[in-house]
Write a structure and sequence with these properties.
Layout: H1 3-26, H2 34-50, E1 55-58, H3 64-71, E2 76-80, H4 83-92, E3 97-100, E4 115-119, H5 130-140, E5 146-152, E6 160-165, E7 168-174, H6 179-188, E8 192-199, E9 209-215
Parallel strand pairs: 1-2, 1-4, 2-3, 4-5
Antiparallel strand pairs: 5-9, 6-7, 8-9
């Protein structure tokens, strides 16, 4: 792993460590929109139809997405770069498994995942590191397994840099992609896009929410 990779992972993890409790309190369930829940339900059906292998929720945060998948009958575990977030998820959902890790270097054997979900977590991955992440998706997925990504969409190449949130000093960068950019990178990694959906900003939000569904060819 390069020094730049280590810096990116360290600052993201430490920033979420600092704000974990406040974030979980402010957003106890980030699935308030019916479209988000519907897409997760569709993803769960695709996983179940393809086989019994478990799903990895990458960037699992407080664990509410993994909990929803579990409630839909999907075997799932969470991975997050922030140890504090992992601890909160374990406390909130003791029946589920969560561990510290990164989507750019998954500590998993080849072809063992029945699906990958990454909701609003690739936004913290620099564009130069997305190919490595998507290559890991391809490596760890079983043939036919689906991928569901969600991210704020926008054309701003410089993204956003926050140095404070919830009264805590942080060093957190956001990178806004477009569905076309993300699907192109997925295709380069050998994953086949299936569908894209864009949800317009809700009141108080600035950017559309994009969803990309893909799969590893059988």
């Amino acid at each position: 792993m390069s020094d730049s990779s280590a810096d990116f992972l360290r600052t993201t993890g430490s920033s979420y460590d600092a704000i974990a409790k406040d974030y979980a309190s402010q957003f106890p369930d980030g699935l308030s929109h019916s479209l988000d829940r519907a897409l997760i339900s569709a993803f769960a059906e695709l996983v179940t139809a393809n086989g019994p292998a478990p799903v990895a929720d990458l960037g699992s945060g407080p664990g509410y997405v993994a909990a929803r998948l579990h409630g839909l009958g999907v075997p799932v575990f969470g991975v997050d770069v922030s140890p504090a977030m992992v601890n909160l998820a374990r406390e909130a959902h003791p029946r589920l498994r969560f561990h510290v890790g990164t989507m750019t270097a998954l500590d998993l054997p080849d072809a063992t995942l029945g699906g990958i979900l990454a909701l609003y977590s690739t936004i913290h991955v620099p564009d130069s590191h997305l190919p490595a992440a998507f290559a890991e998706f391809h490596r760890t997925l079983t043939p036919g397994a689906p991928v569901l990504l969600a991210f704020q969409s926008g054309p701003e190449p410089d993204g956003l840099h926050l140095t404070e949130r919830f009264g805590h000093e942080i060093d957190l960068r956001y990178y806004w992609g477009t569905p076309a950019q993300v699907t192109a990178l997925l295709e380069e990694a050998g994953l086949e896009p299936t569908a894209t959906v864009t949800r317009e900003p809700e009141e108080g939000a600035k950017r559309p929410r994009a969803f990309v569904l893909a799969h590893k060819p059988a």
